[in-house]
Amino acid sequence: MKKAEKIIQTAEKLFYKHGFNGIGVDVIRDESGCSKTTMYKAFTNKENLIKEVLKYRDNQFRESLINYVGEDKGVEAVTKILKWHHNWFNQPQFNGCLFVRSLAELRAPHKDASAIAIEHKEWVRHFIYEKVQGASKAHDLADQLFIIIEGQINIHLIYKDNSLLRDNLMGQGVRMIEILMQEW
């Protein structure tokens, strides 16, 4: 593995766990085993490192979701999209959405990072739309599904220590999706 890749992967894990503002380049350097010179040669500053981390995370996300859903369309595709997210929510290291976190922590001074995060969310919306094309009001349906999935990400993060409430709220989200799916 190249040193830059090691730095990106290390930074991704640290940013995901502690936030962008909670981790400095010295911690990333120490955890990755690379020198500060190597880090700055590869990324020049923390902002560029953050952009590369978000691009890396986006690529990993897209590849994983595309492979999981495959060529399915309609109800089968939506079911797989939900199942993929459910699997993500139940990983021990689940800590919400890194893209939302980047928007919350970095928005004003980090316009490029914000643009990557927004582009990621737009890709998710478009991916859902592609999978429900053919349904009546496919754009509306895709937006509604997107809103429910985004809500489920936050519900799972907020209530991860209250499984009864979390599971009830997640179940309500699934029921809402089932109702939407019956309409087309």
From TrEMBL:
Q: Where is the HTH tetR-type domain?
A: 1-61
The GO molecular function terms of this record are: DNA binding
**DNA-binding stretch(es), residue numbering of this chain:** 24-43
Record key words, sorted: DNA-binding, Transcription, Transcription regulation
Q: Which residues form a coiled coil?
A: none
InterPro entries given in the database record: Homeodomain-like_sf (IPR009057), HTH_TetR (IPR001647), Tet_transcr_reg_TetR-rel_C_sf (IPR036271)
The record's listing under PANTHER family reads:
HTH-TYPE TRANSCRIPTIONAL REGULATOR YJDC (PTHR47506:SF1), TRANSCRIPTIONAL REGULATORY PROTEIN (PTHR47506)
Protein name from the UniProt record: HTH tetR-type domain-containing protein
